[in-house]
Amino acid sequence: MTFPILTTTLLAPILAALIIVFLPKENDKLCKSVAAVGTGIALALSLYVYFGYDQSVGGLQWVDFGQPVPWIKDLGVTWYMAVDGLSLPMLLLTNLIGFTAVFASWNVTHRAKELMILLLVLIAGVMGTFIAQDLFIFLLFYEIVVIPIYIMVVIWGSSKRVTKEYAGMKLTIYLLMGSAFLLAGVIALFVNSVNITGIADMSFEGLAQVAFPEQLQIYLFALLLIGFGSLLSMWPFHSWSPDGYAGAPTAVSMIHAGILKKIGGYGLIRLAIVVLPLGARFWAPYMAVLGVIGVAYAAMGALAQKDLKYVVGYSSVSHMGYVLLGLASLGIIGINGAVAAMFAHGVMAALFFSMIGFIYERTHTRWIPDMGGLAHYTPKLAVGFMMAGMASLGLPGLITFIPEFTIFVETFKVFGLLAVIGIAGIIITALYVLRAAANTLFGPARPEFSHIKDLKGPEMVPLIVLGTVLVVGGILPSLLFDMIDSGVAPLLAHINDVLQIGGR
Amino acid sequence: MNIDFSLITTEIALAILGLAIFTLGLIIPRSARKGLGNIALLGLIIVLGIAVYSWPNQGETLGGMYIVDHFSSFFKIVGLVAAILVVFGFRRYVAANVGNYLEYYSTIVFATLGMIVMISAGDFITLYLGLELMTISFIVLVAFRSFDVKSLEAGIKYLLLAGMSSAVLLYGLSLVYGATGTILFAEVAQSIIDGSGGLLLIIGLVMLIAGLGFKVSAAPFHMWSPDVYEGAPTSVTAFLATGSKAASFAILIRVFVGSLTGIQEHWVMLVAVLAALSMLIGNLIAIPQTNIKRMLAYSSVAQAGYIMVGIVAASQSGVKGVMFYSFIYVFATMGAFTVVAAVYNKIKSDEIADYAGLAQRAPLAATVLLVCMLSMAGIPLLAGFVGKFYLFMAIVDGYMWLVLLGLIMSMVSVYYYLRVVLVMFRDDPVDPTPLKMETSVTITLLIALGVTVFLGIYPGPLSEIANTAAQSFFTP
Amino acid sequence: MGTGLNPSYFIGLSAALFAIGMYGALSKRNIISVLISIELMLCAVNINLVAFNKFLTPDAFLGQIFAIFIITVAAAEVGLGLALIIAISRRRETNNLDDLNWLRW
Description:
- The structure holds three protein chains of three kinds.
- By secondary structure, chain A is mainly alpha-helical.
- Chain A has helices at about 5-20, 30-50, 85-105, 110-130, 135-145, 145-155, 165-195, 205-210, 215-230, 240-245, 250-275, 275-305, 310-330, 330-365, 375, 380-390, 400-415, 415-440, 460-475, 475-500, and strands spanning about 70, 75-80.
- Chain A has a two-stranded antiparallel sheet with strand order 1-2.
- Chain B is mainly alpha-helical.
- Chain B has one domain.
- Chain B contains 20 helices and two strands.
- Classes of the chains: A mainly alpha, B mainly alpha, C mainly alpha.
- Chains in contact: A-B, B-C.
């Protein structure tokens, strides 16, 4: 019996939320501090786990209680919390963003207590999906996040081009519809696995060993692809993403763009590709096409936007297109790149949204033509914005460069022309990021913004934490890549075995 | 004929309780009758204890007319739990809005007795008697606010439509009797296996589906439920939506899965279509509703659709799914209606618009309503998700279209549930004074919340019990 | 059987009666007429039961017993129905279903 460190990490925010329930409504500083402590503990624990993971051994480590604890016997569900090189970056990312999201909402005074409770529940939910090695437990956490997000959007969101009610409902319904397909796929997957093996086992490891017939794999993979794809904002299921982010409050945008979307990519690898390799082989070209369409379409879309949040919203759809492209390559370098790209984009998008949130709090506008010259008054804010922007266009030296590069290396081998179209997307990215930065931050100083203050105190936390990760990840990519490789390599080896045996 | 009384202790105790409340109420002075609620509560808890204690008892009595197995015991416990929650959680509501404690509480007990008899029925006569005892008690209860025209109208509508559906059901039963020459479920099953059948049986079958479909308010036989749910006192609505529905599902399973399995190919598709229709109609018509009781009525039509999925499977896993779902459905529905009644007590309105800012005025009530509705929609970490998982698992081989439809429709249901959430959580209240809930209401709400969340996270124990019970249904 | 009758006569009669009752219950707007129509449907059931009993299980009185139960319960139901009709007409002086519109039908 080992100490259940992952379950503890999961419970830290929940415990903090429970404490906040009993705090007085008026004392919102105290509520925020408790939330910061809760997420801080979770972040510290996940850092400890990350650096305590033995990469030379690989595989699932830090198994809570030493072994899976039986949970629902007749479904073969176990409380199986463990991490490998695939989960760990995601876990770390969740807690990085969760921690900073608390500080990004430091200035919210309207019903702050409720905001913190929902935020903590949301963080715990997302964390759960990444550490659960059991499909059923994964599903439990997968959908729970939708409802807090809805409530947060309709209470603390903002109505600009679309009302926050519309944005919240669109976000919710899209994700739930996707999850309906996912759930149908999962149920069919489980029932068929029981029919084939005669044993009910819901762990990802167990399901991966089941030899599903090829036709079934193709059919189930399609259901899972719709489910995870709509969470990953895969074209054509992406339209919730810009609207949703625009309506959402800063913390939700950060978490949603930063980590929630990544559950889609994570699920595609962990469940769809590993358990259904034959299905993956069938659908991979289509995934690549959808990914490239997503890259190009969303980049064009971002170019046409004048609202900062829409720009970043479309840009995140575009970045997820790269992830999909990397996954579709079904090669180790491509998938490594895709996972790293998810991590990198998470950090970058969270930083971006927190900076936009601070700008909006100060200027009460996100409309690019209305702004300009902000760097004169808010140099620190400008630094954060520029870092996020440079990371978005994949500047070497920042964390996003190497993942994107590896994705292209692999996909060019596999898909050729498609990869070239994808690379072209980078040029458009550079165009809209630089345009947004130039029109917002630079140019002549505007007197109407002379009263606004630069970042200070707790507001610096997102910039420092996320900025550090952006730079360190860019300079020392091996910190991230070795970890991911130790997780992806065994999975890929398994897939290749299956493809060779079941291949034509 | 030997009568094994040990098998029907629960029923005897319940009948005694009903009569005792009635007699006692006549003896004591009118002003003391308020205490009858406590007596009914205590009595029902004792009966529940008896029912749980007699779980190991299995067998048939009265010459096969009365079947006691784990399956029936399970549904009896569900019915009794519903009755207890109704008596406990709505005390204040009954005192303020219903009155007539004597008749009210004894009728509740008799309605429960009707359910329990029906659940254990082994032949058509027992089925009919249990069904009518329940229905007639409910007609009285629905029309109980005799000073309120809405309640009376709901009562007469329920009476007429229930009478019509009973007639259709009986006609179906008489045709099945004509086709097989027996009224015992077990012998009907045997006779069908031996080859009796033909047109009479098929027509009878269709009429049985129509008659029982009315009781569970499956579309297209659901027209009564919104009106009756809205007009009836909220406590009765809650009982109607939980106990009556669970008992009707029990008998639906007993008749179709237990006794008409031999001609499965004739009814499975029909039930599947009814299930699909209920999900579609229930969820889609719930969207524009402005009265929360009507909205919950339509959502309960949709719930009936989900539960019927388990009957389509006609297998042990399907029956198990129905049992699991019925159990959690009782708590979710009770929680929701308790909130509705408690809020009505304070603000005298059932309109969704008047729930504005409830999250700030009564945080617990708003949270429970949120959790219960989301459980019905099947959002994870709540019991409804596990329930739907079990139900849809049973039919995924062969009825994938129904699985997809069901899951998509339950996501649609999130849409109208969230509209209530929107009003409760986003809006600021017109009158910010906190609503103080009575202790009994608070406890009921906490029970509903606790069970819904606990079974959502750790459903193991209940699912094992349901599994045992479903097993006893197939291998007596 | 020796009586020259066969079950199809009874089935035909009861089916006709049931259909008439059903039609009446669905088309009549007067509450009392609807109640009467429901009684007709129940009568059809009783005829069925008694006839089947005679032809199928002449030794056991299953059908007859069932029919007696139905008659008894139906009486209780009608009694309740009339009580409700009286309560309603006191308040609204109507016994027409179309006037019952406090609830959206």
